[in-house]
Amino acid sequence: MTAAMRVLERPSTRMMVFAAIGVLSMSLAAEWADNPDLTSSGTFGTALRVAAPIGLAGLAGLFAERSGTVNIGLEGMMVMGTIMAGWWGWEYGPWAALVGGILGGMLAGLLMSLATTTFGVNHIVAGFAINLLTPGIARFMANELFTGVQGGSVSSSPGIDGKIGTISIPLLSDAFEWLEDQGWFVISDVAGLLVALTTDVTWDVAIALALFPLSWYVLWRTPIGLRLRSSGERPAAADSLGVSIPLMRHLGMAISGGLAGMGGAVLVLFANRYQENQVAGRGFLGLATLIFGNWRPLGVLSGALLFGYAQGITLRTNPADLVNALMLAAAIALALTTVWFLVTRDFRAMAVTVVAAGVGFWAYLAVEQPNNQLVFVTPYVVTLIAVSVGAQRLRPPAEEGIPYLKGQR
Predict the structure, then answer these.
(1) What mean pLDDT value characterizes the chain?
(2) What's the pLDDT at 390?
(3) Number of structural domains, the chain?
(4) Is 42 inside a domain boundary?
(5) Domain limits for position 87
(6) Under 8 Å between Cβ of 375 and 314
(7) For position 382, what pLDDT does the model report?
(8) How many CB atoms lie under 10 A from the CB of residue 286?
(9) Are 247 and 287 in a shared domain?
(10) What is the DSSP string of 244-292?
(11) What is the DSSP string of 342-355?
């Protein structure tokens, strides 16, 4: 392999190339379809809000699985986060809702950890048990706390008084807004994303975004992060150096549950109240971002933004037009990816992307207006495709899901 090919095969190079392909594809699709809302700050702002709970669920799964526990119970932990956030938010305000959500999810995480780490219950079984148990607990709590209260019922809490507030970066947000208004190819499209990231971002979403670089630093640059990761990679070696594997796995699950619960709290703050079935599968989407992101914080964030964008466009004014333009963007991205595979001499992948790009262009030209069923199933189709494509280079923790007994190996 030549030096040039080795550079092209680096993960950082691939990430930059695919990011550039994504930006160029979206810009070209917005121009071709004459739909500037595809890359507007409004669309990106909605996507960011939708992506936050999904990303927190993915980050929760990251801490659990890096420490050795397969956390299928993210959905249930988010449910506990919503009911606790609705209760504390109604009683004490929006910031208390955030704290209550974290606490509720953490309790569910520790319950699962007790079953898996202490008693050796199969991780998949324990996770599904959490998912089945927590909706019943949430309904019981809602019945006890909210029934008979003005604005409350067995399926929803009273409204939360006050707002959590927003944050803007004045000089940057003004500059990016000016760039977006110019309508320049690529530059204005990127500016639309930067406006969404720097203008009127609610504090819960801002904290969620900040947790991704913080998680990377903790897991890869601190002693406690090394111990957590070693508990999922080489527990016997970590045990021989004095690391308590059960303690690390309990800690990983406590953090995991807290992050998932925070994702539930973000949903409550967005709706300004707890509502039954509020999580609606976002815990499972979080698991998908974990797989898509190859068990790394930046990858999880990328997956959350992708899935959040696909789900967010269904909430815009003309979702059918946006889905049609997104279909075109996907076809362009596949065509550009074909060139990348040609350069890297991955001819099998190139053949697949050629066919997929052809199908994408045909679908865009043949379908003038997608029906409602296609519009609202789009986020899940995007999730399936993204996870299927990303599954080619997966590297999960070596001993996740495997019970460890001291001195076993």
Answers:
(1) 90
(2) 58
(3) 2
(4) no
(5) 52-303
(6) yes
(7) 76
(8) 32
(9) yes
(10) -HHHHHHHHHHHHHHHHHHHHHHHHHHHTS-BTT-STTHHHHHHHHHHH
(11) HHTT-HHHHHHHHH
Supply the pTM of this predicted model.
0.93
Give the integer Cα–Cα distance in Å for 343 and 108. Answer: 48
- Please report the DSSP string for 313-332 in residue order: GGGSS-HHHHHHHHHHHHHH
101 and 187 belong to one structural domain: yes
The residues with which 167 forms a beta bridge, in sequence order, are 201
In a domain, residue 122? The reply is yes
Please report whether residue 37 resides in a domain. no
Of 278, 303, 328, the last residue of a domain is 303
Do 12 and 111 lie in a common domain?
A: no
For residue 328, being part of any structural domain is answered with yes
The reply to whether 364 and 270 lie within a common domain is no
Instruction: Give me the pLDDT at residue 5, please.
Output: 61
193 is written with which tokens?
Answer: 């994303």
User: DSSP H helical segments within 199-244, as ranges?
Assistant: 203-221, 223-233, 235-240
Give kind and range of the element (H or E) at residue 167. Answer: strand 166-167
Quote the CA–CA distance of 66 and 69 in Å, as a whole number.
7
| Residue in the block written with tokens 């052809």 | 358
Instruction: Retrieve residue 165's tokens.
Output: 């507030």
CB distance 46 to 315 below 8 Å: yes
Residues 355 and 273 grouped into a single domain: no
